[in-house]
Amino acid sequence: MAAVVEAGHAASKQKTEAHQTKQEFLAVFEKLRDELLEDSILAGQPESSKDWLRTMLDYNVPHGKLNRGMAVLDVLLAARGGDVTEKEREAANVLGWCIELVRVQAVIVFLPALQTRATAQLDRDVASILNLTNGAPDPRPADISRTVLGIILGGGAGSRLYPLTKQRAKPAVPLGANYRLIDIPVSNCINSGVNKIYCLTQFNSASLNRHLSQAYNSNVGGYNSRGFVEVLAASQTTTQKNWFQGTADAVRQYLWLFEEATRGGVEDYLILSGDHLYRMDYSEFVAAHRRAGAEITVAALPCIEKEAEAFGLMKIDDSGRILEFAEKPKGDALRAMQVDTTLLGLDAETAARKPYIASMGIYLCKASAMHHLLTERFTTQNDFGSDIIPGAKDLGMHVQAHLFKGYWEDIGTIRAFYESNLGLTDSPNPNFSFYDKDAPIYTMSRFLPPCKVLSAEVEMSILGDGCTVNQGSRIVHSVIGLRSRIGQDCLIEDTMLMGADYYEQGAELDECARLDKCVPIGVGSGSHIKGAIVDKNARIGRFCKIINVDGVEEANMEQQGYVIRDGVVVIIKDTTIDDGTII
């Protein structure tokens, strides 16, 4: 009994000392805060920068976000077994805040050019100089896997990508020989440490569900990480009889499920699209969002005037806070949306060429703010881009812009999809590459044999697993998908072949040859295909010409097995094109 009482006294004493330590730390913080705000380093800075600094100093320490002084004490206590003198305690308090102070001052000095990566590097440099860590800390928020929930919006019926979406959801459309569109946002999430991921779909979700269940196991992100990738299809319930009416409505209908995650520590919802091609480190996005104290942060893309009129545009103040939205403005309304993009970190030359910032349709929102907006403020509005995000700004909520300077493409149309895929073949440095070892793109393991090329020519092309290219054929600037079979003496130019879901067995091929009428899956000998997309399991006969001979821009020949969209011939999935056909 005495031992228990003694242990209780010890615990109480430790708790009291911890409280005193924090009070001492906060006292040091208050002093340094006042000194910094009066420091000459702020001279000449815009008032918004000072406001941002005050917000940061008031928010970070009281909320325990960057309590580095306590972290220093933890290191000392561990090293000394709890034996820390009052002088060391005071020094640790000051030292811990000074680490953060150096970073804050550097942000002010270089504002706005200093970006998240540079800030993270400064953290590593300071820690290294002070010898407080054995190695460079990870610049991403340490708790991102626990506190961020990824929500990928599968989109609507995909009418702009039809007929590629005839039998599949838009995120399930094949990409780059081996992948599907959904692999892009899922891989970005995993590489960024976000391992709790839902994909919301409404149309043709069977193949998408199958792909995700086979490609991503139940402990995404590592053993016992409790990560997952799951499809949430639109469904009717006793209280909800409607299908998804838009992006925001899709989230609203599953808000009850997402809020279960908040009880496990989720603080922010990361809203993504399933039909974009880009590589992004969301951990930087999350860090910037939390550093700004924003309720919503919108990923922003700098763009030229010709591109800008196709997007929703934003105006910002010199701290990056969004002041105004405009949806696809034209003429004077477009020019009124110009901003100084150096405020977000662009160099002067690039900023002069790209004076607009467009929304990428990628949002990070506090879970509490999302609940408030969707269930209390905008209960009937259904779209994030046109309704919810501008509405949040109008309510006075803190809506921040975060600049993304990499390659990004919305591949929601046939032409954009076609050009994005062929762009992967550009040598030596395509806009988007699948060969980044630091941020790989994951997909389903299929255990297919290597590609086989038999006395054929291949130039500026990508060949997927399990392909066969026969003698005398030539492939130029094309993407050849899984299990593709290309016969002898074929010419494939500027084309995407999606390949096949299965191999035809020897007996089937022998029967085709015997009947001399059956067309096997793949491209028959002597055929010429140019400027086309050939969907999976298509059967192209011998000596066909699919080259859009008449230069048609639009044609709906679905009964004949193809359509033409934006000048691109699309051969529909499972279609048979007879020998000698000319398109």
Automatic annotation (TrEMBL):
Q: Which SUPFAM superfamilies match?
A: Nucleotide-diphospho-sugar transferases (SSF53448), Terpenoid synthases (SSF48576), Trimeric LpxA-like enzymes (SSF51161)
Q: Identify the pathway.
A: Glycan biosynthesis; starch biosynthesis
Output one GO MF annotation: glucose-1-phosphate adenylyltransferase activity
EC assignment: 2.7.7.27
Keywords on record:
Allosteric enzyme, ATP-binding, Nucleotide-binding, Nucleotidyltransferase, Starch biosynthesis, Transferase
InterPro entries to which the protein is assigned, alphabetical: ADP-Glc_PPase (IPR011831), ADP_Glu_pyroP_CS (IPR005836), Isoprenoid_synthase_dom_sf (IPR008949), NTP_transferase_dom (IPR005835), Nucleotide-diphossugar_trans (IPR029044), Trimer_LpxA-like_sf (IPR011004)
What does the record give as the reaction this protein catalyses? Answer: alpha-D-glucose 1-phosphate + ATP + H(+) = ADP-alpha-D-glucose + diphosphate
Which family does the record assign?
Answer: Belongs to the bacterial/plant glucose-1-phosphate adenylyltransferase family.
PANTHER family assigned to the protein according to its UniProt record, in alphabetical order:
GLUCOSE-1-PHOSPHATE ADENYLYLTRANSFERASE LARGE SUBUNIT 1, CHLOROPLASTIC-RELATED, GLUCOSE-1-PHOSPHATE ADENYLYLTRANSFERASE-RELATED
Please report the name of this protein according to its UniProt entry: glucose-1-phosphate adenylyltransferase
Give the organism, scientific name.
Auxenochlorella protothecoides (Green microalga)
